[in-house]
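Entry 14. Ran structure prediction on the chain below.
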Amino acid sequence: MTVSFVVDLGWPPAFSKTQNEPESIWLAVLERALAGFGGLRLDPDDWMGAIYIIAASPDHQRKRISKALMRHAEDKIDAFGAKMIMIEIIRDSGHEGACHAYEAFAFERWPVAGY
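Output, structure tokens:
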């Protein structure tokens, strides 16, 4: 199976902290169909990459699309030279599968207080 990442788009400026913040979203295409998408933010001030979304389309779930998207995100963050990768997620029953997937990629859960 080969997944192509055919589009890298700049996120609309209205969603950026500044006009110069490097952010991107990309699409995964499998057999000429949209299979999923991912998005990340690269923070040059903190040398950190933040994955803010990884999603496989319903017709392409359980086909390793999310795994390919995660690897693509990690490659982009590594190429940027980030010292850390962060993923923010709510730990509830609706996100349980995603939490397990991130842990399978060796991400560690950090206790965080939100206000």
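Residues 103 and 109 are 8 Å apart (CA to CA). Will compare against last week's run tomorrow.
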